[in-house]
Structure formats: C-alpha cells, structure tokens
UniProtKB/TrEMBL annotation, chains A, B:
<dbReference type="InterPro" id="IPR040900">
    <property type="entry name" value="SpmSyn_N"/>
</dbReference>
<dbReference type="GO" id="GO:0016768">
    <property type="term" value="F:spermine synthase activity"/>
</dbReference>
<dbReference type="InterPro" id="IPR015576">
    <property type="entry name" value="Spermine_synthase_animal"/>
</dbReference>
<keyword id="KW-0808">Transferase</keyword>
<dbReference type="InterPro" id="IPR030374">
    <property type="entry name" value="PABS"/>
</dbReference>
<keyword id="KW-0007">Acetylation</keyword>
<protein>
    <recommendedName>
        <fullName>Spermine synthase</fullName>
        <ecNumber>2.5.1.22</ecNumber>
    </recommendedName>
</protein>
<keyword id="KW-0620">Polyamine biosynthesis</keyword>
<feature type="active site" description="Proton acceptor">
    <location>
        <position position="263"/>
    </location>
</feature>
<comment type="similarity">
    <text>Belongs to the spermidine/spermine synthase family.</text>
</comment>
<dbReference type="InterPro" id="IPR035246">
    <property type="entry name" value="Spermidine_synt_N"/>
</dbReference>
<dbReference type="InterPro" id="IPR030373">
    <property type="entry name" value="PABS_CS"/>
</dbReference>
<dbReference type="Pfam" id="PF17950">
    <property type="entry name" value="SpmSyn_N"/>
</dbReference>
<comment type="subunit">
    <text>Homodimer. Dimerization is mediated through the N-terminal domain and seems to be required for activity as deletion of the N-terminal domain causes complete loss of activity.</text>
</comment>
<feature type="domain" description="PABS">
    <location>
        <begin position="108"/>
        <end position="349"/>
    </location>
</feature>
<dbReference type="GO" id="GO:0006597">
    <property type="term" value="P:spermine biosynthetic process"/>
</dbReference>
<dbReference type="Pfam" id="PF17284">
    <property type="entry name" value="Spermine_synt_N"/>
</dbReference>
C-alpha cells in the first residue's frame, strides 16, 4: 500500500489500527528520513509503516501463506479508509500492489530482458535438469502452456508460434526444395515448422541437445510435435555438436545454404564488448555463417528486447565488421510469453 | 533477495555485514516465527532480515531513489556471497527481484486482469482527466507507445492493432457495403479500421466520449488516425449517447445491422452475478443488440483474460439466457500491451 499525499502528522491515528490488532510497535530513529515504525503481530505478521518526508506513506505487510488473508485484507482496507478520512482531498494517488510471494515451491517471477518485475501465472515445475552448459527448466503456465527456461531466461512457450514464424521470415519465405541450416533451436520448434514446407535438407546443429531434447520432446510437444523423437528424418538431420567446428568444416568444403536460422542464446546484454568475449564469439559465428550463405540466401536470427537499444546497436555494429559485407532489416514481434516486444533480424549478402 | 536453504544458525555471520555498514540493529520477538531483525542505516536505508523456521531467508532492502545504487548492489552481492559460503551446497534456490518503486511520479505497476504483479516500461503520463464515468489516463510506454488506461485498466495501446483486428473478426469478414454498429470504442481504433473497408454506414455510440476523444485524438493517433477529428464522415456517425436508449429506439424502428461490435467496458470479474447488477446490464445490452442483428449478421465482443475461466463461463451462461437463441465461438488472442492472453467472442443468431 502506497499513498502520496500533501500533508503529514497523521501517524497517531494510523497507529490505533495496529494497536487494535495487538501488534508490538517499535519506532526507529531515521536521522531525518521521516517516521519509521515496525509492528510484529500474531502468526508472524510484520508491518513496516513509513511516513516519508516528501509526502509519501508506505505500508508493507508481510505474512505467511497460511495466514487468514481476508483478515489481512480487512486490515489494509481499514488503513486505506483511515488514510482517506485523515487526508481527505489531499491524496494524489493511492495504490495497493498484489502480494509478492517468496519461498514458494514454484517461482512465478521471471524478470524481462529489460529488467522489469513480472509475475507469471506459473503453477508447476514440469522438468528441471542441469547440463554442462545451462540450467534447463520447463515450467507450466496456465495461459502459455509449458515454458522452456534456460539459465533463468524465458526461451519459448508452447504459445509462441509467433517466435518460430518470426525467425523463419514471417511467412514470406518458401523453404520448399531449399538447403537449410539451423544453429541451436533445441526445442525443435523451428525444425518442426520448416519440415512442413518440404525443404531439400535441414541440418540442425545443437550443442546442449540431450538434456533439452529430453525435456522438450516430453513436455513441449505443442512446439516440436514428434520431430525430436528421431535425430534423422527424410529431409533433416540433427548434429549434437558445437556449431563452430561444423561451420568451419562447411566453409572448407564450400557448402552453401539457402537459409540459415541462428537460434543460439540471446544477444548478450553487456554494453562493453571490449571487455566481453561474447561479442567476439557472436561475430565469429556470424562470419562463418555468412561464408556458407548462398549469395541470394537469407540469414535469420532473434535480437533482443526492443527496449535494449544499446545492445541492439552493438549487435548491428558487429554486422558492419564481417569479412563479407551484409545488409539487414529488422522486425519487432510480440512473442506471447515474453511479455516484452522482441526484435528479429534478417541478414543478407550485399 | 530470497534464499531457500536446508539448515539455519547462519544469523551471526550475516549480521556482521550490517554492522560493517554501521546500521542500527533491532531484533524483534516473533513468538516462534523465526528470527526477525531490522537495520536502519544512513540515507534512510532500511533492511528487514528474516530467517524463517522452514528454511527461507528473506532480505528486504528499502532505500531512496537518490541513494548510491551501486553501493547497495554491493551490499546485496556481499550478502549473497556470504549466504552461499555459509550454506554451501544447501541452497535450493536464490533469487533477487528487481526493485519495487513506490511514490514515483509515474506509476509503472498495472496488474493484469487475473491479478498478477506487472511492471510496465511506462516513462510518462501524457494525459489525465476525470469524466463523470471514469478516470482517463494516457501513459507512455517505451515499447507499446501511448496506452489508454480507464479506471486503472489497461484498455488499448498504440501497439495493439491485434485487439482491433480480433474484435473485427480476425480478418475473416468483409465490411464493404455493410451496416455496422459500434458500442463504445471511444479510442477510435475500430472505427478507423472499419472505415478503411468502405462499409455502407457505421454508427458508433459512445457515452463517455468527450474526455476520451480529447485524449485519444491528441495522443493515440497511431490507433485512431484522424477519424476522431469529426463526429461525422462519409460513411460514419458518432453518437455521444448512452447505448441503451439508442438500442431500444433501433429495436422499435426495426433497424438491422450486419455487424455489431461491442467494445464497452470489460466483463465484470465478479463471480456472483445474483448480487451484481452488472450481469443484468450486460445481458440487457446483449439482448437488445441481438434484436437489431441481421439473421445472418455477426456480433463481436471482447471477453476477458483467458485465465479468468469463471468469469468467462458466467458470460457464456448469459448467452444462453437471451430472448433470441444464439451460438458463439471464441478465440484467444495476444494483445501486446495486455501482458496476458485475451478471449474474444463471435456471436450469431441460431
């Protein structure tokens, strides 16, 4: 509960509400930073009341899950009513936020790439494993279905066909009879969609495949269908390998692909590339990829949150440093489970 | 900061970190609900340390906006490092949440319809007015553009063409030469899109138009274009009236519409319709609307968050109680600024 108001000296009247609840009060010395009192009540209840010097009252109420929630709602209602009465006409804004739940079996808070606090409607952990490369979780969301979370980043949910469509060129491409290379893409979503268009051959290179495949082929079937049940099919093969040596081999062999889809881990958010080798690594993969891209071919990749303009600019700067000159376009796409708009790139040889 | 771990008795070592910061400690008696201490530091800093009896440590750090954030990050880092060292191997989970900002000029927290805590990337208030019916705000979001917020509900952002398309039948309808009735829709989005398809006539009935139009025609131009600049055009008219008497008049006159789009306020979330006249009101509008719907016509409306299944079921029950029998279908749509999936209905005469 946070109230913004114009005049203070309302403290004694508020205190009576806590006293009625038989809470034990402690007043803290703040050295000129307003009034600060804490109250311990029954069932482990704890209240922090601050009347800040610039006309803000904040009330934090902590309680346990098994506490009587309607009693606590009544307490907050009483505080709100009292404050409204005391400050009649002087309240600029009053706001009560949903409770933050900590230490629950299921963690519902997965901040966006641009660092905002977001509560998901997650009600269960479906799968959790650690590979040599990452922590792999599949969480169940009421609205998005199962969500693949890699190292704490929301990667893809069963609701996110929009992601797969965007990274395949937003329906404007024809994959029939084409040579396709997928880097990463362990959830199988891209593979499953490209296969439907009857390409000549898809080669997918995914390093951390085994633990991801186990989870996705069991729990992300709306995304991958049955494509991950076999590492090889009529027009696809999955190489469980580091893509860098594979790309180097293809360069040496003079292999060419009509489409390359890079679905490796996201652009690093670091804005100091000189201190971070991730950009070097990204550029290496880009450079090798462009070398095996057909002159009229297209390279697709995801970028980052549309709000992370510095990281996007840095990525675009890398595109100017490749051994083979390229042009690019970008598109902003709404991927349902991301809860933030996402940038996708199309890159081609000049 | 919340840590879940298996063994306790780590308190003294944690305390040393606060003592190094010259914070004043108060230990509170909790009557068997774990260890609870608070610390007041310089600049109005305040820390709540709780070691809960079921193996959870929570640390809340409160500070002012103008405080030295990197110093505070270092404090949290030190606490995290110490906890990891003390509980080596026994930590099930460790999580640090983005700061909750209270009392700021711009409120960034607009919970979803299903009650989840969501932080928007809002950086400014563009417009704020109170009409006789509602509080009207237009807020600026970095990624979604301007957002119309009515009575605290996110209504529509400039990014949300998906909403307008969904409530027009998801591109499967042809409005050319048709008679169209829009109920509500004060932001002008639907009107602007339907006009493009050259219907015979659009009648839009919006009660709280004046304050909404002022805001939207200035600040939501990506949504409404110039359509709100005039209350009348070649193939549309806007009636600034309560839709109920207008519908009653149309029923009496025997008017018929090919398409009716209900964009009035959302389905009430109350699950006790017998105690709430909102459902009665909703049904009245539905009943009148169906009476002026051409036998082969379609009625479109938004429903609710896909997670609010009780409210959706109640709405569907109302559809079974109309004086003219109807069938319906529904679609789940991702409206970018909603940050939750939304249900849209298509209703037609049996």
């Amino acid at each position: 509960l946070a109230v913004l108001f114009d005049s203070a000296s309302t403290v004694p009247d508020l205190l009576s509400i806590f006293h009625e609840q038989e809470m034990t009060e402690t007043v803290h010395e703040t050295n000129g930073h307003g009034y600060l009192a804490t109250f311990v009540g029954k069932n482990g209840r704890f209240v922090i009341l601050r009347v800040h010097s610039h006309g803000l009252v904040t009330i934090d109420l902590q309680c346990y899950e098994e506490d009587n929630i309607s009693q606590l709602d009544n307490l907050l209602n009483a505080l709100e009513t009292k404050l409204k009465a005391l400050l009649n006409g002087n309240i600029t804004r009053i706001k009560r936020l949903p409770a933050l739940i900590r230490g629950a079996k299921v963690d519902r808070y997965w901040p966006t790439a641009d660092g905002r606090l977001i509560e998901y409607d997650i009600d269960g952990v479906v799968y959790e494993e650690d590979s040599a490369y990452q922590n792999i979780k599949i969480l169940h969301s009421q609205q998005f279905g199962n969500i693949l979370v890699l190292n704490g980043d929301v990667n893809l949910a069963e609701s996110d066909l929009a992601y797969t469509q965007a990274i395949m060129g937003s329906g404007k491409e024809d994959y029939a009879g084409k040579e396709v290379l997928i880097l990463g893409g362990g959830d199988g979503g891209i593979l499953a969609e490209v296969v439907k268009q009857k390409p000549k051959m898809i080669t997918m290179v995914e390093i951390s495949f085994i633990k991801v495949i186990d989870g996705c082929k069991m729990h992300m079937r709306k995304t991958c269908g049955d494509i991950l049940d076999n590492l090889k099919g009529d027009c696809y093969q999955i190489l469980v390998e580091d893509c860098v040596p594979v790309l180097k081999k293809y360069v040496k062999e003079g292999r060419m692909f009509d489409y390359i889809i890079n679905d490796l881990t996201a652009v690093p958010i670091s804005t100091e590339p000189e201190e971070d080798s991730t950009w070097e690594f990204l550029r290496l993969i880009l450079d090798l990829s462009i070398k095996v891209l057909h002159p009229s071919g297209k390279y697709f990749t995801q970028g980052n949150s549309v709000n992370l303009s510095e990281a996007l600019t840095l990525y675009e700067e890398q595109l100017g440093k490749l051994s083979c000159p390229v042009d690019f376009s970008k598109e902003v796409v709404c991927v349902p489970s991301y809860l933030e708009l996402w940038v996708f790139y199309t890159i081609w040889k000049k």
